[in-house]
Amino acid sequence: MAALRLGDEAPNFTAQTTEGEIDFHNWLGDQWGILFSHPADYTPVCTTELGTVAKYTDEFNKRNVKVAALSVDGVASHHGWIKDINETQNTTVNFPIIGDEDRKVSELYDMIHPNADSQLTVRSVFVIGPDKKIKLTITYPASTGRNFDELLRVIDSLQLTAYHKVATPANWNSGDDCVIVPSVSNEQIPELFPKGHKEIKPYLRMTPQPN
What is annotated as the active site (predicted)? Predict the structure, then answer.
């Protein structure tokens, strides 16, 4: 099957999770979502990642984001692993971990990359908008843990740029100046960006973060 691309609809699925059966689209509702895969249960890097996500609950809630994890092990195994995560990471896992023993979801989302490992999922991340469209994909190898501060930064940018006619420059963080998109004419700027703007080049116009 073809790899999923930005703007594609996130495939829907029904799966068993540590919080019962979910229909993915219904579970997301009108919120933003993160779906991220883990090579296997009881693996060291994943244990730190899932603990980190649990600790970031307030940050995800602030941004109206629901999080679901996936591993190719079963739900019974996940429940045992959660005890270890809570104990070692000093937190409480409070989001569903999808059991995917039949690889159904992994294959739907192209999470198994055979040249890396024919059995286990790579560290895929999908950010999904309220319209169920894929807004971001990042793929890490099994050996590299993810940076969840970067994921929050990207979600801040995605949410800002979805509702305002701006883009975010390199290394942008929430609160920094933004780029006015090229489709906005200079005549429109005062109405759209009352905080003012600075023209560096005709194609590079900066404005304070509008929201």
Answer: 46 (cysteine sulfenic acid (-soh) intermediate)
Residue 118 sits in the same domain as residue 36: yes
Print burial letters for 24-39: b (CB count within 10 Å at least 16), e (below 16).
bbebbeeebbbbbbbb
Residue 124 and residue 96 share a domain: yes
Give me the domain span that covers residue 197: 164-207
Residue 154 lies in a domain: no
Tell me: the pLDDT tens digits for 18-33? Answer: 999 999 999 999 999 9
What are 145-202's pLDDT values in tens digits?
A: 999 999 999 999 999 999 999 999 999 999 999 999 999 999 999 999 999 999 999 9
The β-bridge relationship of strands 204-207 and 198-201 is antiparallel
Number of domains in the chain: 2
